[in-house]
User: Which sequence fits this backbone?
């Protein structure tokens, strides 16, 4: 099964600009004098634009969406357990390390390494999408999902240890956390 034509890589600045333009066009004040049906349509389209933007703005949610279009579940959409024993051990070891340490520097080191790993995976994911290598895409999405979750754990633990308000999750981690909150 091949991937459909489409580009995984997007320019976030272009996405942001287009999103803002569409939101401005659909703003409720512009349809205030219009019939109720047009107001409802505008509100509905605004919700569609918001959902599309939230999916497209982060690589992990965008990759999951593109796979879903193919009828494939991966990452957060997948059911079951990790099939790759090496990845399973890596994930378990990293989580144990995060849970066991109260050392801010060690957590920052884990966070920096995690973010570097995410960048490597994003390059692999981009290449796999471009070459329409579905198996590699699914593998990369699964790995990225676990790295994003690990980042969320580290970022969540750091402020409680040193009062940091400057540690921010990557967009992928922030979007995953936001989606998890919506599904609760």
Assistant:
């Amino acid at each position: 099964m091949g991937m459909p034509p489409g580009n995984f890589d997007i320019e976030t600045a272009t996405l942001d600009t287009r999103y803002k333009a569409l939101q401005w066009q659909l703003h409720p004040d512009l349809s205030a004098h219009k019939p109720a049906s047009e107001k409802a349509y505008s509100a509905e389209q605004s919700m569609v634009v918001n959902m599309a933007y939230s999916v497209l703005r982060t690589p992990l949610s965008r990759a999951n969406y593109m796979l879903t279009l193919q009828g494939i579940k991966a990452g957060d959409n997948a059911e079951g357990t990790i099939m790759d024993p090496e990845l399973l051990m890596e994930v378990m070891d990293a989580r144990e390390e995060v849970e066991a340490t109260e050392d801010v520097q060690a957590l920052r080191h884990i966070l920096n390494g995690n973010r570097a790993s995410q960048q490597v995976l994003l390059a692999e994911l981009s290449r796999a999408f471009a070459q329409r290598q579905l198996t590699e895409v699914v593998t990369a999405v699964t790995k990225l999902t676990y790295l994003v979750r690990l980042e969320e754990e580290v970022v969540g633990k750091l402020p409680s240890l040193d009062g940091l308000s400057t540690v921010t999750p990557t967009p992928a981690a922030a979007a995953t956390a936001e989606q998890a909150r919506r599904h609760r």
